[in-house]
Amino acid sequence: MPCLRSRLLAIVGATLLLGLIACSKVTPENYAKLEAGMTRDEVYAQIGKPDEVSGSGIGNLTMSSELWNGREHRIAITFAGDKLALKSIQAAQAQ
After folding, report:
1. Is 11 within the bounds of a domain?
2. CA distance 36 to 78
3. Which pTM does this prediction carry?
4. According to the model, what pLDDT value does residue 51 have?
5. Rounded to an integer, what is the distance from CA 55 to the centroid of its chain?
6. Gap between the Cα atoms of 33 and 83, Å rounded
7. Engineering a disulfide at 42: which of 4, 38, 69, 85 sits with its beta carbon 3.0 to 4.6 angstroms away?
8. How many domains in the chain?
9. Taking Cα atoms as reference points, which of 62, 67, 64 lies closest to residue 52?
10. Does 18 map to a domain?
């Protein structure tokens, strides 16, 4: 019986983990909720942390480009300082 219980727990755990992985926040619905002027923290609360970040600055002006890779879509956002300035969404490329 203990062996059966361990196997059952492993199956349930694996199923839950796969379910979480499949639940991407990178969707057209969440993209539509993103608005110019939102803070970085507000964006992160909506779609999570980015997969890629690059940036630069001159004096007090900083710009960063951040990319989120979902199963079906990619979202790119440019922040000016800490505020969303530009956004785009496209279909993810097949791998």
Report:
1. no
2. 10
3. 0.73
4. 97
5. 18
6. 15
7. 38
8. 1
9. 67
10. no
- Note whether 80 and 87 are within 8 A (CB): no
Place of tokens 């694996």: 14
Beta bridge partners of 88: 76
What is the mean pLDDT for each group of 10 consecutive residues in the chain (95 residues)? 63 48 84 98 98 95 96 97 97 79
Structural domain of 79: 25-91
Residue 57 in tokens: 């600055």
At residue 11, the pLDDT reads: 63
What per-residue confidence (pLDDT) applies to 79? Answer: 98
Asked whether 25 and 69 are in contact (CB, 8 A), the reply is no
- Picking from 45, 38, 81, the residue whose alpha carbon sits closest to that of residue 62 is 81
Predicted local distance difference test score (pLDDT) of residue 33? 98
Query: What strands, in cross-sheet order, belong to the sheet with 83-91?
Result: 52-58, 61-69, 73-80, 83-91
